[in-house]
Amino acid sequence: MSKPVFTHSHDQLQQIAQDMLRFAREKGASDAAVEVSEGGGLAISVRKGKVETIEQNRDKGIGITVYLGQKRGNASTSDFSEQALRDTVDAAYNIARFTAEDDCAGLPDTDLLEMQPRDLKLFYPWLIDAEQAIALATRTEAAAFAVDKRITNSEGASVHAQQSHFVAANSRGFMGGYPFSRHTISVAPIAGKGARMQRDDWYSSQRNAKKLASPEEIGRYAAERALARLHARKLDTRKCPVLFEAPLAAGLLGSFVQATSGGALYRKSTFLLDSLGTQIFPEHIQVVEDPHIIGAVGSSPFDDEGVRTQKREVVNNGVLQGYFLSSYSARKLGMQTTGNAGGSHNLTLSSTLSKRTDNFKAMLKKMDTGLLVTELMGQGVNYVTGDYSRGASGYWVEHGEIQYPVEEITIAGNMRDMFTQIVAVGTDTLVRGTKQTGSVLIESMMVAGS
Asked: Which of 9, 184, 244, 364 could connect to 160 by a Cys-Cys bridge, CB 3.0–4.6 Å?
């Protein structure tokens, strides 16, 4: 992409949103909500020094929800012509006409809407063309190959630059929107040969490309991870402490969000049903949501419905203080939205027991003897019961020192027990998407092997 210039200005997106709302009112809608968006990006991949793919995208779209009392209909289009806008409103209106009434349907209450959104500095366009992106990816992969001659192959390196903007509005006076960006460099080297090959990967992702790790850092670390997995062994079945590396610990935090989200709660399909105000983690565990961190991936002044976001303690001293609710799920539960339509914002898991010195090596020492998990496979989480069983690989640790890599094992437990058995959280913090945490040590899990 030669330059990150949008086809439509912010003012033009606002005008389209206003037009859509006007068309809905003229049609007879009691309420309406619309989102207009446009984006563009460049994605390239290189494998073994040769270009595999170059993709440029320019996308635009409009989605509208029309309400007839408590009946609603949705429709969307990528055509911004006036006739297409009118046709889209008509389609949503006609769907609403024949939809059953839902007593929880409707826009958020006006006093909850963010009428003066703050600028959180989420837009950092990356002025990079295909040739420059190819050079970056090539450097990343070359850095991986340069680490050791045992790096024999690669699944490739990639560079992705994306910038978009949007405007959301509804018939209760809300209108907000902003440009945003996200850029990524990644690589996946392969170590060894034949049946003993091992792969690993690493990436860096930021809104601001200047904050990305260097291609050399990413390539070197990915190669070191792949090399460390060579000559992996199997384990006998046993029960032992398990240390989740920080990227996987972020996944545990994601599981917590899913189990305490409105949809799972009102459907009664979660093991954390009716858990508000109860102890679900040890007293030392804290979870904070802060949607207003400048430049962060999970930041937003309002959620997908226009409801203002706010910093809050989700878990305080192990006690659950709040769910993750949209307006609809909140009404289903007889509660108020938490501003989480569309998901969580900048969640941080921490421990009051953690010290500055509790880095990754210190966490291995805390575990003493047990399993360090660095990769999980499959989707073996039952959110109704909390049962957890996933294929895994990692390293066996004794006396706080890694002894050898392990593979073809399964770790199993129940998430309710896993949460209550969190012994420590490391200061080796890592951001993955909207989640931030260090490595997490769980007191005991079943490890099934040979």
From this structure: 184
> What pLDDT, on the 0 to 100 scale, is given for residue 2?
43
CA atoms within 13 A on the CB side of 24: 33
Instruction: Please write the tens of the pLDDT for every residue from 234-250.
Output: 999 999 999 999 999 99
CA distance 197 to 93: 57
219 and 157 Cβ atoms separated by less than 8 Å:
yes
d(CA 74, CA 63): 7
| Regions of the chain with pLDDT less than 50 | 1-2, 4
Angle at 152 between CA 148 and CA 153, to 5 degrees: 125
Gap between the Cα atoms of 273 and 224, Å rounded:
42
Q: Where are the beta strands (DSSP E) in 171-284?
A: 175-176, 179-191, 198-199, 202-206, 238-244
**For residues 271 and 255, what is the distance between their CA atoms, to the nearest angstrom?**
11
- Beta-carbon contacts of 209 under 8 Å, excluding residues fewer than 6 positions away, are 124, 126, 128, 161, 183
SS3 324: strand
Question: Which residues share a beta bridge with 381?
Answer: 388
Residue 114 is predicted with a pLDDT of 96
**Strand 31-47 vs strand 175-176: parallel, antiparallel, or unpaired?**
unpaired
What is residue 301's DSSP assignment? S
302 and 176 Cβ atoms separated by less than 8 Å: yes
Q: CA gyration radius for the chain? A: 24
CA distance 276 to 260: 9
> Residue 82 corresponds to which tokens in the numbers above?
């006036």
The residue ranges of DSSP E strands in 303-400, in sequence order, are 312-316, 319-320, 347-351, 370-377, 387-398
First-to-last C-alpha distance (Å) of the chain: 51
CA distance 38 to 166: 6
Residue 195: its pLDDT value, please?
A: 80
Can you tell me which residue has the tokens 């045992």? 150
Strands 387-398 and 370-377: antiparallel
Q: For residues 412 and 4, give the distance between their C-alpha atoms in angstroms, rounded to a whole number.
A: 47
Tens of pLDDT along 167-193?
Answer: 999 999 999 999 999 999 999 999 998
What local confidence, expressed as pLDDT, does residue 379 receive?
Answer: 81
